[in-house]
Amino acid sequence: MFSLFTKVKSISTTELANQNLNQVVLLDVRSPNEFKSGHIRQAKNVPLSKIAQYEGNRNELYVICQSGMRSKQAAKQLKKKGYDVTNIRGGMNQWSGKVIGGK
After folding, report:
1. Taking every annotated instance into account, which residue ranges of this chain make up the domain Rhodanese (predicted)?
2. Residue 76, C-beta contacts closer than 8 angstroms, at least 6 positions apart
3. Which residues are 89's β-sheet partners?
4. Angstrom distances, CA of residue 3 to CA of 7, 29, 81, 89
5. Where are the domains of the chain?
6. CATH for 9-94, among 3.10.20.740, 1.10.287.3510, 3.30.870.10, 3.40.250.10?
7. Inter-residue contact 42 to 24 (CB < 8 Å)
8. DSSP string computed for 33-45
9. pTM of the model
10. What string of pLDDT tens digits covers the 103 residues of the chain?
11. 42 and 26 Cβ atoms separated by less than 8 Å
12. What angle do CA 63, 67, 68 make, to 5 degrees?
């Protein structure tokens, strides 16, 4: 049964920073241009518009965007597909760790 109120786990960017990022799958659902402007090294760019086609490891996924809104939408779609997914609240706006790319 489909529910508009699909509950998705979420963590803060601080909690994400405490994870071993080499051990998790981190999807960045921002546009390719946003991704190029600066992203977390381990992140894989899968824009929200393409998230429905995502086929990947069913282990725990972490999803991030700029503010947390698009990643929440993406997380709900992935959860419906059977993924164990966690949304990153606050997104890149709140991320204080290292980023690559950008100017």
Report:
1. 20-100
2. 6, 8
3. 12
4. 9, 22, 13, 21
5. 9-94
6. 3.40.250.10
7. yes
8. HHHHT-B-TTEEE
9. 0.91
10. 444 566 899 999 999 999 888 888 999 999 999 999 999 999 999 999 999 999 987 778 999 999 999 999 999 999 999 999 999 999 999 999 999 986 5
11. yes
12. 40
In the chain, the amino acid numbered 47 is P
Tokens 């993924």 found at: 83
Give residue for tokens 């489909």: 2
Tokens of 56: 């990947």
Q: Could you identify the residue written with the tokens 């282990």?
A: 59
Specify the amino acid at residue 27. L
